[in-house]
Amino acid sequence: MALFKFTKAIFNGEPIDIYNYGDLSRDFTFIDDIVEGVIRVQDKIPQANDGWSMSDDPLSQSSAPYRVYNLGNGNPVKLLDFVEALEDVIGINAVKNMLPLQSGDVHATWADSSELFDLIDYMLPQQISERE
Fold first, then answer.
1. How far apart are CA 45 and CA 51, in angstroms?
2. Residue 124 — pLDDT band, cuts 50, 70, 90?
3. What CA–CA distance (Å, rounded) separates 19 from 118?
4. CB atoms within 10 A of CB 104
5. DSSP state of 2
6. What are 45-99's pLDDT values in tens digits?
7. Which residues partner with 26 through β-bridges?
8. For residues 28 and 54, which has the higher predicted lDDT (pLDDT)?
9. Cα 76 to Cα 111: distance, rounded to the nearest angstrom
10. Interval 106-122: pLDDT, tens
11. How distant, in Å, are the alpha carbons of 91, 111, 128 from that of 101?
12. Which CATH architecture has domain 2-131?
């Protein structure tokens, strides 16, 4: 995880690799929110659909139903802002090794957890404050 890897490197004066020259965004999620989502969804068992047709209906409604949910913060943070926040808290400037984009990497990633949150009647704390 970037948080621990970067923090350790900053404290030790070691360089951290910053890909795409810092022009990346990631969705950082607090572990308590992941645990809350897992606990709330564990009793929401998908129900079988006896009238299900392979050619017409989604697999999540089959005679052996399953659901896959994306659970995350849904709010991408710029990598350089993340590193700057670490530097501010630690009180040490990071030694940054600026590198090009890695092969297969993407510019920005974030979760869309709306389907799960609707099912379990849950919102992340920042979503609640945004609605107020």
1. 18
2. low
3. 35
4. 5
5. H
6. 877 777 777 777 666 666 667 777 888 888 899 999 999 999 999 999 999 999 9
7. 77
8. 28
9. 9
10. 999 888 888 888 888 87
11. 28, 21, 35
12. 3-Layer(aba) Sandwich (3.40)
Q: Where is pLDDT greater, at 34 or 85?
A: 85
Distance in angstroms (rounded) separating the CA atoms of residues 114 and 128:
13
Beta carbons of 102 and 22 less than 8 angstroms apart? no
Residue located via tokens 């970067």: 6
d(CA 34, CA 74) in angstroms, rounded, equals: 12
User: How many residues does this entry show for the chain?
Assistant: 132
| Plot region of 83 (φ>0 → left; ψ -120 to 50 → alpha; else → beta) | alpha
List the domain boundaries for the chain: 2-131
Tokens (6 digits) for 119: 């099912």
Partner residues linked to 96 by β-bridges: 16
Give the separation between CA 120 and CA 107, rounded to whole angstroms: 30
Q: Which amino acid is it at 100?
A: P
Look-up of token digits 């090009």: 100
